[in-house]
C-alpha cells in the first residue's frame, strides 16, 4: 500500500497562454511567437509575470495572474511537463510551442514528492477505516430492513 501513502512532486505554476487563431498561417504563428519572445524578454528584465498574464494570457487562471495552483507531472501534457520539470522555483520557461498556441511557465514553488508524513497517513487511515465501518453498518441495516419488509404486488 505504499502508493496510497506517497505523493508525487507538485509544481505551483503560473501560465501565460497565447493561442493561435483558427486555421493559423505561418505568419500568424510567427506573430504569436514574436509576442511570446517579447514577453519573455520583459520577464527577464524583471516585469511581473502576474501582470503580464492578466494582460496577455488567454489561458487558465489569466484573471488570477496566470496562477493555476499546484500540478503534478501527470496533470500536464508530457511535452509541457518536460519543460516545467527543468525549472527551479522562480524560473520562467522559454516560449513552449504546441499545436494550439504558445505557453510561458513560471514555477512559484515545488512540493517535493515522497512519503506522506505520519500525521497525514494517520488521518488518511482513520478516515478510510471510518468509511469502511460506516458502509458495513449501512449495508447491515439495509439487509435487516429488507428482511423485515413485506411487499405485496397486486396485478
Identify the notable features of this structure and list them briefly.
155 residues; two-stranded antiparallel ribbon; 21% strand; single chain; alpha+beta; elongated; four-stranded antiparallel sheet
What letter string, H or E per element, gives the SSE order?
A: EEHHEHEEEH
The termini sit apart by: 53 Å
Give the assembly state of these chains.
Answer: single chain
* Major sheet description: 4 strands, antiparallel
Write the topology of this structure:
Elements: E1 6-7, E2 10-19, H1 26-44, H2 49-56, E3 67-71, H3 78-85, E4 96-97, E5 101-111, E6 114-115, H4 118-148
Antiparallel strand pairs: 1-6, 2-3, 2-5, 4-5
Short description:
By secondary structure, the chain is of the alpha+beta class. It has helices at 26-44, 49-56, 78-85, 118-148, and strands spanning 6-7, 10-19, 67-71, 96-97, 101-111, 114-115. Helix content is 43%, strand content 21%.
Description:
The chain has 155 residues and is α+β, with helices and mostly antiparallel strands. The protein has a four-stranded antiparallel sheet. Strands 1-6 form a two-stranded antiparallel sheet. The mean pLDDT is 88. Helix content is 43%, strand content 21%. It has helices at residues 26-44, 49-56, 78-85, 118-148, and strands at 6-7, 10-19, 67-71, 96-97, 101-111, 114-115. β4 (96-97) and β5 form a beta hairpin. The protein has four helices and six strands.
Amino acid at each position: 500500500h505504499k502508493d496510497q501513502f506517497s505523493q508525487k512532486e507538485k509544481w505551483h505554476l503560473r501560465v501565460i497562454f497565447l493561442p493561435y487563431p483558427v486555421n493559423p498561417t505561418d505568419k500568424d504563428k510567427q506573430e504569436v511567437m514574436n509576442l511570446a519572445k517579447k514577453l519573455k524578454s520583459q520577464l527577464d528584465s524583471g516585469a511581473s509575470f502576474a501582470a503580464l498574464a492578466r494582460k496577455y494570457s488567454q489561458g487558465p487562471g489569466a484573471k488570477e495572474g496566470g496562477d493555476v495552483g499546484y500540478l503534478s507531472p501527470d496533470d500536464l501534457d508530457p511535452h509541457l511537463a518536460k519543460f516545467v520539470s527543468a525549472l527551479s522555483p522562480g524560473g520562467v520557461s522559454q516560449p513552449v510551442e504546441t499545436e494550439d498556441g504558445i505557453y510561458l511557465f513560471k514555477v512559484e514553488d515545488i512540493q517535493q514528492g515522497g512519503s506522506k508524513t505520519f500525521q497525514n497517513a494517520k488521518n488518511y487511515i482513520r478516515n478510510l477505516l471510518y468509511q469502511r465501518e460506516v458502509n458495513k453498518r449501512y449495508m447491515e441495516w439495509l439487509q435487516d430492513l429488507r428482511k423485515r419488509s413485506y411487499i405485496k404486488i397486486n396485478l
